[in-house]
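Hi there, hope your week has been kind to you so far. For a while now I've been wondering how a particular protein folds. I'm sending you its amino acid sequence along with the backbone structure tokens. Could you read through the record and tell me how the tokens relate to the sequence? Take your time with it, there's no hurry, and the full record follows here.
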Amino acid sequence: MDFVHAGSDVTQALTYYVHREKLRVIGREKDLVPMNRIALKIAKKVRRKTHTLFAGDICNTNIYDPNDKKALKEVARYFRGAGGLGSRCRGGLHRAETFSWARKP
């Protein structure tokens, strides 16, 4: 609600870095789905109350290596699943941030 009160037209689920790779580093990979579901639930509740737009957030990944086929497959899998958000953002947007590279398919 504070973002809306500050003037934001988009209610964003705060899921930056809530993806399998980052959670694996801190031993919380099993919390991926529950954390994303809770963040989306909160953001959708705010959206309903305020009639703002809604967005899930996906972020960069540190496993990208253009010379490593295994890493490329893992990164592609991550983005196909929208960082664990997948279809749970139905009716909303996916916001992507902090990318310093891009690769053509």
